[in-house]
Amino acid sequence: MQSILLTGGTGLVGTQLVSMIVAKGDKAIVLTRSLKDKTSSEKVEYALWDAEKNQIDIAAVQKADHIIHLAGAGVVDKKWTAAYKKEIIDSRTKTIELIINTLKNNTNKVKIIVSASATGWYGEDKTPGHFFTEDEPSATDFLGHTCHLWEESVVSARTLGIRVCCLRTGIVLSKKGGALAEFMKPIHLGIAGILGSGTQIISWIHIEDLCRLYLAAIENEQMTGSYNAVAPMPATNSKLTLKLAETLKGKLYIPVHIPAFILKIMMGERSAEVLKSTTVSDAKVKATGFTFLYPSIEAALNELLAK
Question: Are 260 and 275 in contact (CB under 8 A)?
Fold first, then answer.
């Protein structure tokens, strides 16, 4: 039985990952800022940490064979003030820096750190038909800068002889929340809200495939560096929205385009993230032998919305 330490283990992806870790017979150690309403067991252990106060349960880190780093403030949850931008970056970088410093100063048996990153690394499509690959530089916008700092903070673990793998994750589709829940809100009212022109490409991934990819990165010792965690078939915003509406409502919905200027008024700088097109390649992941259970948006939505 292996022990896998997780940051962000109580979030959308983390919760599913913990379940899958336990299902395969391993142990999950979840770092949390509060033990209230959390009970440790033989399979799932909760341990305290607080990156802002530079506090962490050293013994919990020493138990870990592998680390999965998912912690990070929600990118579109709040207005991008200077303070919240700093929180977005610090919640990703300062947290893993605390763990790496703990590893540096204490005996441990950690073999790999698999960290979340995001396709925000690439910015916006500039050449029609071009798929972004992992060897391209980070964008100069806020999210590109954030992803660069995020990955850079994890890569420092290599100086300790620890393998590092970063998963540049697209839009995660899950029935338990996240982006899909936001897409579904107007559809429940019979409105398929297409954002802007609707032609922008969304590079997405089913949450089960994403979690399987984290576990594959741990098991496959050849996986090192950055990988795009996206499904093989990106979809336009319009296609995703209309397919979702069709799956939920049959023909009982009205497509409505939400103009870009309204989104800019409502969301400010964050609107760029829902209006931009980012077409990302999965070729490097496929070359590892990984097989997607849900390669198309149709397959993903049919599974996620099955009654």
Answer: yes
